[in-house]
Design brief:
Elements lengths: L7 E3 L40 E9 L15 E5 L5 E5 L3 H12 L5 E5 L9 H4 L4 H10 L3 E3 L9 H9 L22 E2 L3 E3 L10 E6 L2 E9 L15 E3 L2 H14 L5 E6 L3 E2 L17 E2 L1 H8 L6 E4 L5 E7 L5 E7 L5 E10 L4 E13 L8 H18 L2 E4 L15 H14 L9 E4 L20 E3 H7 L5 E8 H10 L13 E2 L3 E6 L8 E8 L2 E2 L5 E7 H4 L12 E8 H12 L14 E4 L1
Parallel strand pairs: 2-5, 5-6, 6-7, 10-12, 12-15, 15-17, 21-28, 25-30
Antiparallel strand pairs: 1-19, 2-18, 3-4, 8-11, 9-10, 13-14, 16-17, 18-19, 20-22, 21-24, 23-28, 23-29, 25-26, 26-27
Helix pairs in contact: 3-7, 8-12
Length: 604
């Protein structure tokens, strides 16, 4: 049956050893009022049958995209029954809220969960206010629980705790006169993130959703490799533990406390065989359509866990991957930026207090923009936009066409070239660092730069708000010394070691060129004698001045060799460099054209 027209029935077997998400009374969400059941919004009378269907709505990697994401970042690929595909515009908090509310209609038992990165890397509307608007939006749309992602640690543990518990920002104060930020109504779960000194989780490891005696436990973990992709300051004093070992530990603890229905919220994901959100992930056999870290994680997580909601890779899939007992288990991810949500039906047996594995049904659904907007979300967005307007609407430059970035794909993007050129321009003057080339991490490019959606000033105008959306982390730029051999090592680290399965191709400034041979594997993909700066081969023994952000200088994204750099000089922020470059190299009469993206030659 076509995956695009019918929901996929996932084969499951009920086993006595299958455990479900649950939590003890001591970890119930503090947001639940006394005498009320966690997650009970319906007020309806309990069902009387032995089994009841629990609707699990889920999404991941929202990244503060309250307004519909632009360009390719705001599209999903739909596959038709005949195999053809089309791009559909999707996402936006106004539409996500409507989609979730409509999906809940008629479902007495409905719980909404997320798998991390709700915040961080956010557009200016949320990022300017340290993501308070996004937490407020998640409260309004009825999020019951979320695991943490790596981006929840962008501003450090203390700021994450503030997002959970409320209170005004310690440096900038309250953003609205007379209003104190209330924090998240839902619990953030961080089972595998512990304090180095105490060894205890920094937030709750698990929680329980309960309605009319039906209990589902949730365990939340982020990827163990978070220290490699977050600034050192953001994770100072924290330890990140193995995802499988952590989930198994707490699933066993939940079972001891009588909770046998368990869902794991895992901020780690995989790579689907198709870019279409509705392709058949289980063809020809369960799990065949998914690869990457989550495949191995899923195979190691105890069969006590009944479903895995995942994220991080910004991909869409609804798959089954065999658990350690060989039985298929649902593993889902809903792309990113609120473009999709997953609707999973878990059949709960009141007698065994477990999920009937033969009755698990899951599918991803588009958050379409041709549906009514949720009025409360519209009001929220308008309120925060009014506060942001003086900063957001300032013009910083002009472009002649779309400049693809986040959605351009690997290995090189026009926007990556532009950002690298901007960073080189900022750090090239002798008194600013004397940089000869610049390198930019691809994960720091959060969106495309769109021509038609360039703010209120007219087509082609780039506003400060749009430049912030592209580079929201405000990383400080550095100029450092690296030998030619260290540069070559960095290029090899793009495609080997921790980056071999999912290469992280650095974006490079004008004049730096090389060949990437994808017919080879590992470090051999870098053709050493092709690496040149301004036409001259890189000399392994020579010292080069290289511009990059502090995230890379600290060894982020697996580039350990950058930690060996010397003679570090810190400059301004990457965002300021980007805005300044646009202003200096474009005007209304002479807009900036997209770079050709021809610095990395790819052999396939």
């Amino acid at each position: 049956m076509p995956a695009s027209s019918q929901r996929r029935r996932v084969a499951r077997r009920l086993t006595a050893g299958t455990a479900v998400l649950a939590a003890a009374a001591g970890v119930l969400s503090a947001a639940v009022p006394a005498g009320a059941e966690s997650g009970d919004r319906s007020g309806q009378a309990p069902g009387h049958g032995r089994t009841v269907d629990v609707q699990l709505l889920s999404f991941n990697d929202f990244h503060g995209n309250l307004e519909p994401p632009t360009g390719s970042s705001g599209q999903v690929t739909h596959q038709h029954a005949d195999g053809t595909t089309e791009k559909i515009a999707a996402g936006g908090a106004e539409y996500l809220a409507t989609s979730l509310r409509e999906a809940r209609e008629g479902n007495r038992y409905s719980v909404t969960a997320a798998a991390g990165d709700m915040v961080g890397g956010s557009p200016l509307l949320s990022g300017l206010f340290h993501d308070e608007p996004t937490i407020e939006a998640m409260n309004k749309l009825g999020l019951d629980v979320s695991g943490v992602g790596n981006h929840e640690f962008d501003e450090g543990r203390t700021e994450l705790e503030r997002l959970q518990n409320g209170g005004c920002h310690p440096e900038e104060g309250c953003f609205e006169e007379g209003k104190v930020f209330q924090g998240a109504d839902f619990p953030y779960l961080a089972a595998n993130v512990t304090d180095e000194k105490t060894g205890k989780p920094v937030l709750k490891p698990y929680t329980v959703w309960e309605r009319n005696g039906v209990k589902v436990g949730f365990i939340g973990v982020t990827l163990e490799g978070t220290p490699d992709i977050v600034s050192a300051e953001g994770i100072k004093g924290l330890k990140f533990h193995d995802e499988v070992e952590t989930v198994n530990k707490y699933a066993k603890e939940l079972e001891r406390k009588g909770v046998k229905s368990v869902v794991a919220l895992i901020h780690e994901g995989g790579s689907p065989a198709s870019s279409a959100y509705n392709y058949d992930c289980d063809s020809p056999a369960p799990g065949d359509g998914i690869s990457g870290p989550i495949a191995d994680i899923a195979k190691g997580i105890t069969s006590r866990v009944d479903a895995l909601v995942t994220g991080h890779t910004h991909q869409a899939y609804a798959c089954t991957i065999p658990d350690p007992s060989g039985q298929p288990r649902t593993v889902t991810s809903a792309s990113s930026y609120g473009k999709l949500f997953t609707d999973t039906t878990l059949t709960y047996d009141r007698h065994t207090k477990d999920i009937v594995r033969t009755s698990v049904d899951s599918a991803n659904h588009i958050v379409r923009r041709d549906q009514p907007k949720a009025a409360d979300m519209t009001q929220l967005i308008e309120r925060w936009n009014e506060l942001a307007a003086p900063v957001a609407n300032r013009s910083v430059g002009h472009i002649s066409a779309d400049i693809p970035g986040r959605g351009a794909g690997m290995p090189e993007s026009p926007l990556g070239d532009l950002i690298s050129d901007a960073q080189l321009a900022a750090m090239a003057p002798a008194d600013k660092g004397g940089a000869e080339l610049a390198l930019m991490n691809p994960g720091g490019i959060r969106s495309d730069l769109s021509y038609a959606a360039s703010g209120s000033e007219g087509d082609g105008v780039v506003t400060y708000g749009e430049s912030f959306t592209v580079q929201p982390f405000t990383n400080m730029l550095t100029a450092v010394d690296l030998t030619g051999e260290q540069l070559l090592t960095a290029l090899r680290q793009q495609v080997s070691g921790s980056n071999e399965a999912s290469p992280k191709i650095l974006q490079v400034s004008e004049g730096f060129t090389y060949t990437l041979d994808l017919t080879k594997s590992g470090a051999d993909r870098i053709v050493a004698d092709s690496v040149r700066l301004k036409g001259e081969p890189i000399d392994p023994g020579r010292t080069y001045r290289v511009a990059m952000n502090e995230f890379l200088t600290g060894g982020g994204d697996g580039f350990q060799v950058f930690k060996e750099s010397t003679n570090k000089l810190v400059g301004g922020s990457d965002l300021d460099a980007f805005a300044a470059y646009l202003g200096e190299h474009s005007s209304a009469g002479a807009p900036l054209a997209p770079p050709a993206a021809d610095r990395i030659t790819v052999v396939r």
